[in-house]
Specification:
Elements lengths: L3 E4 L5 E5 L2 E5 L1 E5 L5 E5 L3 H6 L5 E4 L1 E5 L5 E5 L18 E4 L1 E5 L4 E9 L5 E14 L5 E5 L6 E4 L4 E3 L5 E8 L6 E8 L1 E7 L2 E6 L6 E5 L1 E2 L3 E2 L5 E9 L8 E9 L1 E5 L3 E7 L5 E12 L5 E6 L5 E8 L4
Parallel strand pairs: 22-29
Antiparallel strand pairs: 1-2, 2-3, 4-5, 5-6, 7-8, 8-9, 10-11, 11-12, 12-13, 13-14, 15-16, 16-17, 18-19, 19-20, 21-23, 23-24, 25-26, 26-27, 27-28, 28-29
């Protein structure tokens, strides 16, 4: 009988095979190739009896289940001598109950709580390597780096901006024991860029390649600097919602407008801890009958961004 692996409610590895079902004491970890390791904390005599090595290595497809728990669907066509029992193929899906606690340095950091053989509570961390991106529905997802094709871990639901103009995702989960709703937040530190008429970009400050390219439309094409904001409208996709499957959302970026000497316009945005980042724009300048200067903003390639900033003489 092929051994079937699973994870119990205490995040312990469980083996079912030869009419036996039993937990295996050990520690989970993830290597640089996003393979899952399980280091056994069992005596050698016990391992020999059950024909298990010092460590198990699992490969497969990473994903998030509807409760935002991390899961690995095990490969069914791989057997490595010395890593798993010789001549067997592991099957099953490993589901880890916990929460995503960080999104730094192009990594997804997942925390889980487990119990050892002595009944002591242990906290473990699994770090997956990859990049944070946004899909065509403006949902945030993590692309797990793999040799063949990457795995996609999508954060279901909406995201918002906090007071520091950073993206915040609220994760809601259901406690399987109490059935209570549990909420946690994930903050993506970064800064905004406006590079095209129908795209709004958020670049993560702690990642090398992670960024969100959102499909968006300018909500207020004519801007007066004293208001100090830029509004965009975008839709965030949800499964099973409405025919279009999206929920509209308004994104407001706050800052200070300035005219540059080289006939351009800049927008100074303040982020966390007083950090200022400047959006620089090229511009085509016209004057109306009220002697107002109208700057039609352009990107670095001279393309129109669909935004006009109106400067009055008094300003």
């Amino acid at each position: 009988m092929r051994p079937k692996y699973s994870v119990d409610n205490d995040n312990r590895l469980v083996l079912a095979g030869n009419a036996q079902v039993f937990p295996i004491d050990g520690v989970f970890s993830v290597d640089e190739e996003n393979r899952l390791y399980y280091w056994l904390n069992e005596p050698e005599t016990w391992r020999v009896k059950h024909q298990l090595p010092e460590k198990l290595v699992f490969t497969g497809n990473w994903s998030l289940d509807p409760n935002n728990d991390l899961q690995l669907e095990l490969s069914r066509n791989e057997s490595r001598q010395g890593l798993i029992p010789k001549g067997t193929v592991p099957i099953g899906t490993l589901i880890f109950k916990g929460e995503i606690i960080s999104c730094e340095s192009d990594k997804l950091v997942f925390e889980l709580k487990t119990v050892d053989k002595n009944g002591l509570l242990q906290v473990r961390i699994l770090k997956l390597s990859g990049v944070w991106l946004a899909d065509d529905s403006n949902q945030i997802y993590f692309s797990v780096s793999k040799k063949d094709s990457p795995d996609t871990l999508t954060l279901q639901g909406a995201w918002q901006l906090n007071k520091n103009q950073q993206i915040v995702y609220t994760c809601e989960k259901t406690n399987l024991k109490t059935k209570d709703k549990i909420s946690s937040t994930l903050t993506f530190s970064g800064f905004w860029q406006i590079s095209s008429a129908n795209k709004l970009t958020y670049i993560l400050s702690t990642g090398l390649n992670s960024k969100f390219d959102f499909k968006a439309q300018i909500e207020t094409p004519t801007i007066y600097p004293k208001e100090g904001l830029i509004k965009y409208r975008l839709g965030i996709g949800f499964e099973g919602l409405s025919p279009k499957g999206t929920v509209p959302q308004i994104i407001s970026l706050y800052g200070t407008w300035k005219i540059n000497r080289d006939i351009g316009v800049s927008f100074d945005m303040e982020y966390a801890k007083g950090q200022i980042r400047t959006l620089d724009f090229g511009a085509e300048v016209n004057f109306n009958k009220d002697n107002e200067a109208i700057f039609n903003l352009k990107n670095d390639f001279g393309e129109d961004l669909g935004i006009s900033v109106v400067f009055k003489h008094k300003f």
